[in-house]
Fold each of these.
Amino acid sequence: MKTQHLNRSFSFASVLALVTGLVAAPIPAQADVTEESAISDPVLQVGGDETSRNLSWMSESSGGGEIRWAKASEVDDGQLPADAQSAETTDSGLAIDLRRHYNHAAMTGLEPDTEYAYRVGSEEDGYTPVENFVTGPSGGDSEFLVFGDPQIGSGGGRPDDAAGWERTLNSALATAQDPRFFYSMGDQVNIANSQSQYEQYLAPDATRTVPQATTIGNHDVASKSYEQHFNRPNVSRDHGGGGAITSGGDYWFIDSGVLFININSNELDTDEHAEFIDEVVAEHGDEARWKVLGFHHSIYSTATHNDDADVRRLRKAIPPVAARNDIDLVVSGHDHIYNRTFLMDAEGEPVDGSDAGIAQEKEPGQTMYLTLTSSSGSKFYDHVPGLEWEAKSVHNDVPAFTRVRVTDGSLRATTYEVPTGTDGQVTAQAASEEIDDVEISRASDEAPEPDDDADADGAGAGADTDGAGAGADADGAGGGADAAGGESDSGGAGPNRDGTETSADEADTAADADGSTPAAVDAEAEGGEPGAGSESDAASASKDGDDLPRTGTELALPIGLGAGTILLGALLLAASRRRRSALH
């Protein structure tokens, strides 16, 4: 009788553990995935340079597929010619939703200033309709578009952030003149493993006809879904890499003579990022007329995330690396507000005599930083006035985008808002309204060699282990600024470094304002180990204050619990069956 009672206990415990595991593990429910065709989510992306374009898509069948392409002039009645070029997938596997398979492939050998047609698929799943795209000229003037957080899903339908994202994207494409690509600065989705949110982000036609480059945001990082949906070029697994269940990887590409370097700012090993930037510039800097660095967490925003511990850590590490590599422009998102800095030096301070005007003539080693606001209108953060780096901030709670025009002599970044109608509803098309304009040119034609350190204090090739840059305060502020960002009494034409101090003791977490956390949280100045899951300061909450679904690395805990309980349940069930067999 005792044995039979023990047998029933094991059976009940195994079932309970299995059920608990299934509930805890963040596997998307059926309702979270829209009904898809055999091929879904095709997305056109930048390649390593102008001669290549990368593709990603989802399929029902395993085993990969192919991409086929030809010049658009060779297409007959919507069909590619029989001798169209083709390339098989370079990477494929089971998607995070456990229902489909992801596929990556690349078109190579593309000619400049040419219209191409392509389709992706396989014999098993069929092929997508033919889509067209145009390669840009090999030289001369060009432009690209930059967008802050689309974060599809964060608005909860109020407003419709998917419609808002498509509306902003369409408005930007109508404003620009044949942009080479568009650049999304992270948080493409609100929940890292939500297939329905990725489908909405990729729904606009432009995602199949205009190449894009993406950035890993703190809402994207906690799932492999980001890596599966986006086939980025030149990804380093040794720098900013992800884990078993997280996305990662720093990467770079060259387009129209501009070297773009993108780092995964969720990974707070600043030495890794510094090494990556140094190596890429040393190897490819002489191929570029301008250098642009992109990452998600803005280090010079004028909203509430500026004092987060992870942001303060990055603010110590990035300026000396940007200076010694003569990075011209840094673009970021995360804080859902628009901000432009003064020209900043290697110590993370505004350059003496710099102003907020349109014309900005930079010396070697000086960098401008842009923070992009929401491109969907799903949420916005409050403005924090008086920060010493603030040259121009716009906080109208209106979706926006930035158009960057490139010439041999300048980078011109013009930012536009896309107002909603009087009823607050978004529509498919909208006229944009200019809210800021800045043109960066060089004071001299000579840029410093990649291994020349522009930092006056001679910082080494990699940032210090604790991320400290030249002149950084011990409490984690950017060089010359206090931990709260060094308030000033004016955001006017000239930098003010006599602002009042604000203690950072009240803001030593790296939690996102809506409850998510980055992949790693800053270790304290005294050498504490990074932690995860810290809660946001109430001051960083979004305006509506609504609790949003758990995102970012907060998913790591339920994933671990889910996997552990499923394993425990399986072991208990096996033990139960063995005891039952022994009884019989």
Amino acid sequence: MTGIGGVEMGAQAARSRALAVLRVRSRALAVALLPAAAAVILLVGGSTGHLAGGGWDVLRWVVSVLALCVLLAAAGVALVVARSRPAVTPTVTVAEESAPDLYRMVRDLADRLDVPAPSAIALTPDCDSWLEDRTHPAHGPPPAEKHHDDLAGPGGPAHRRSATAPVLVIGSPFLWWMRVGELRAVLAPVVAGTGPSAHPDIAAARRFIRGLDAAVAVASAGRRDPLSRVACAGLGWASRLLLRSCRGHAAEMERGVAAAAAERAQAVDYGLRIVAQEQVGLAYAGWDRLLTRVALPAWRMGRWPSRLDVGVVAALTELSRRDRLAEGFASRLGERPACDLLEEPGVMDEAVSLLAARLFHGGPAETGADWSPVGWEEYPEEVVDRTWRTDAARLHRVLDTLGVRRAAEGAAPGTDGPTLARVLDHLATPDAASTAPLTAGSDAHAAGTETENGPATPPADLDAPTDAPQPAYDDPDAPTDAPQPAYDDPDASRLPFGDSDASRPSYGDPGASRPPVDDFDAPQPPYGDPDAPHPPYGDHATPVLTIPAEDDEDDLADTTARGAALAAGLTAQLAREEAEARPAGARAPSSAPGPAAGPDAALWDDRALPLLPLQPPRTGREILTAHITAMVCCAAMDTAGAAPALDWLDGPSLLFDGARTADLAPSVLSLVETGDPGPLRAWMTELGIRPEKPVRLV
């Protein structure tokens, strides 16, 4: 059924499911009042002389005490459910004076759909759009200006709160990439969801479920003293029980709301919505690649790109050019972009970029010496060059720790600095095993054959104590003529395993009006699983991936023993550096003035950032490969005249004579996996890179 019939069917289904949720609340109240009713019956029977006797007196006291305890517990649970602050998605509020054209477009859209206009507009650093209720008292007073006041009626405060329209949250990449007409078509089904949201039963059901969700979060926080732990355990049990009872009805209610909104929105720009949905997928692809390939390296260096939304436009334009779609997109890009609806798009872009850095990486709330913005024109020098040289310096510090000589015997004077040849000579396997990974007990090490770094140390007893002095971990002046450790144990390190190329989960259909959900691919209620650990930020939190430890053995199985030991040292060094930097990144925001537009920090808690980690931890092989690649790039810049650059789709890149070099990943992988430096040496010889020359490090 389509048209008005489909709208009515979806709305009726949502209302019936909302009533089912409210019936669960009523049943819980009835169960809580049942002991009190029994106590009243016993007390009245005793006062009238019908239930006289010692046994009835004891029963009256027992039931009365039980009723009082149940009432107190129910009142406590109800108070927590009513007073707990529901989860709110971190956003940047767009004031009406800073975007009058955007507010005018949204209100005109609501008038055409015959629904209440959203009470406010906010931006999120994500490729999604939804409605979010922020009428809870803990979220602050509702907006002073209200539209469609006739829906409120003469009721009390509860009716006034339910009549306040939700906040429209728009993904910032949509504003910069889409044209005005496309954004209007994408927002039509989202704005249409304000109609069902204004229904008193649906609003009451949503408030009840959000209160239960917030109560579960309060119970999960835990307390130290035994009495509080018992109270939190009881609160959590009751809240999860009610959530389980409401879960199916809540899911069907939200599906009914989304169906009704989608049916109503078909009357607005239906043909343009098809084209706009294609732009949604394209925007998500470019945004995801920009964050993981371009922004993440900068965040790790303590710099946050201040124009992420401008970058996504450049990335998508480059993507369309590479896919030979430039002709089709030329006419489209000539239309008015949606960001023109903002009075100061640069200020909004900066605020959203800082919020993205906090959510996806966990950076501080304000700029400082170790957390400063960076422009795209400064990115090659400030991020790419510094990243490569920092990684190269870390690589040589770990080599010093392993006792690797800085220069081979008989080398020319002045070549004992940090050279690429030192890395190649260390990772290259002996000739007898140059085509296969070096394994424990190999003939080369068992016989103590000569290697490029000197005599190989015989296999050592792993359980035997060693008296050989070890150089300090971070001391670059440590003696390098100490005997090298044995590299015969391929199981020397146990590193966390993850896939750095794993794509982020899809965020669903941006045309559906719904609160954010935990699993963006599975149809489930928007309030999560009551039995699962409760995230501190509610429905939009993504759990950190946990991979079994045995997968790590597979990750290092294809590397040489020396590579595995070096990867373990790099991983440990990175962990120490991150631990030292964590207190600075986790500091509380100060009262210093920030940008004109900033994240709504008062609405959400920032004690567990990053909220949405982009990638799982890198594996040992990925860390080793990245550090060797950085060392090769440093040698290319210092000895062959190469230059750092920014590729909008692939991130840091190396330029020779203004052209991007061929991918050197296969050559580096050949060195890491088999210990064969031949392909990498051939690649460097072709470009004139001299590995024996020292490079400049940070």
